[in-house]
Design a protein that fits this description.
The chain contains eleven helices and 13 strands. It is an alpha+beta fold. The strands form three sheets. Strands 8, 9, 10, 11, 12 and 13 form a six-stranded antiparallel β-sheet that branches. A four-stranded antiparallel β-sheet has the order 4-7-5-6, covered by helices on one side. A three-stranded parallel β-sheet has the order 2-1-3, with helices on one face.
C-alpha cells in the first residue's frame, strides 16, 4: 500500500471495554510507527466530527464495544469515503448481536450451542433451566448467561441452578439489556484468527478460572494459550468451520472465531469478533507468533487486508 502514509488509530471510547481498547490502541499505534507510517491516536470520546478523519489515508479501528464493533462507525466512515480496517457495517451488526449471529450460523448449518434469548424486562421472572427444558425437552448440567451485545466476557456467568442465576443477576453490571442463555459445552476451547481469508495457527485456551472470563483474558498470567495440537483437534476441519462462519457473517479484513469442542469432538462456534483485542495478552498476536510473525507484521497484514 505505497500511497498509505498517515494512519489514524481510533481507540478508547466509553464502553465497558474502554481499558482494553486503550491497550489495543496503544499497541497498534506503536506498531504503525515502527512500520514507518505516521500514526495518530484518536480517542473516540474526543472525536466531535468523523469528517476530520478525511485528513488521514486510513483509520485503524482498535475501538472495542458497541462504538467500534456495532456497525455504526463503519457505516459513518463508509459514507464519508474513509478507508478503515475490518468488516463492513452489516457484518459488524451481525456479529455484535450474539443472538443474531447464532441465528445466521444456524441457518447456514454451522453448529452453535443451543440456547434462547431473554429480554431485559423478563429477566427477573425467567427460570432459565425450565425454559431450556420447554424448548429442548431436557435440562443441561449448566448454562452460560451472557449479554446479547457486549464483549471481553463482561457480565458472563456460568449458572448451574436457580440460586446461581439470581446471584448472577445481583452481580451483573448492567441488567437493562437482553441476555442469551446457552448450554455449556465442556471439554476444550479454541480460537481461530483470520486475516484476509487466511486462517492463522489455532490457539487452544486453558484457564484455571471457571471459564475464559475477563480475568483469564486480560489479567491472569496463568491462562495458557498454546498452538492447537492435531492429536486433540482436526485442524483442517476447525479452519473450515471458522472460515465458513467468517464468510456466513460477511466478514472481511480480519476477525477472530471462537470455538468450543465437546467430549465427542464436535465443534461449536460461540462467537465472532470483528475487532479482536490487540493487547499483550490477546489471541491475534499470539497466533501470529506461532509462525514467527511479530506484532508489527500482524498489524501490517491487517492494514493490507
Amino acid at each position: 500500500m505505497e500511497n498509505l502514509k498517515n494512519i489514524a488509530v481510533i481507540y478508547g471510547g466509553s464502553s465497558s471495554e474502554r481499558e482494553i481498547s486503550i491497550q489495543s490502541g496503544l499497541g497498534v499505534h506503536q506498531a504503525i510507527l515502527d512500520l514507518g507510517y505516521k500514526s495518530f491516536l484518536k480517542d473516540f470520546n474526543d472525536l466531535d466530527d468523523l469528517a476530520n478523519l478525511k485528513d488521514y489515508d486510513m483509520v485503524f479501528i482498535a475501538l472495542h464495544g458497541i462504538e467500534g464493533e456495532g456497525g455504526k462507525l463503519q457505516q459513518d466512515l463508509a459514507s464519508l469515503g474513509i478507508k478503515y480496517t475490518g468488516s463492513s457495517s452489516i457484518a459488524c451488526q451481525n456479529t455484535w448481536n450474539k443472538w443474531k449471529c447464532k441465528e445466521i450460523l444456524a441457518s447456514k448449518g454451522i453448529s452453535t450451542p443451543r440456547g434462547f434469548t431473554c429480554p431485559a424486562n423478563e429477566l427477573e421472572s425467567c427460570s432459565p433451566f425450565e425454559k431450556f427444558r420447554t424448548i429442548y425437552s431436557e435440562i443441561p448440567d449448566s448454562l452460560f448467561m451472557k449479554p446479547e451485545e457486549d464483549g471481553s466476557s463482561v457480565d458472563i456467568y456460568e449458572i448451574k441452578n436457580d440460586y446461581d442465576y439470581h446471584k448472577a443477576l445481583g452481580d451483573c453490571k448492567n441488567m437493562k439489556r437482553s441476555f442469551i442463555f446457552e448450554e455449556a459445552i465442556r471439554n476444550r476451547e479454541f480460537t481461530v484468527t483470520i486475516i484476509d481469508k487466511r486462517c492463522f495457527p489455532i490457539i487452544e485456551i486453558k484457564t484455571d478460572n471457571q471459564f475464559y472470563d475477563y480475568d483469564a483474558k486480560y489479567l491472569s498470567d496463568e491462562t495458557s494459550m498454546t498452538e492447537a495440537n492435531s492429536s486433540v483437534l482436526d485442524l483442517e476441519a476447525a479452519n473450515k468451520i471458522a472460515l465458513n462462519a467468517y464468510n456466513a457473517l460477511g466478514c472481511i479484513g480480519w476477525a477472530r472465531v471462537d470455538l468450543l469442542q465437546d467430549e465427542n469432538g464436535v465443534l461449536y462456534v460461540i462467537e465472532i469478533n470483528t475487532v479482536p483485542g490487540m493487547t499483550s495478552h490477546s489471541c491475534v498476536p499470539k497466533s501470529g507468533s506461532f509462525i514467527n510473525l511479530s506484532y508489527q507484521e500482524i498489524v501490517q497484514k491487517i492494514i493490507n487486508a
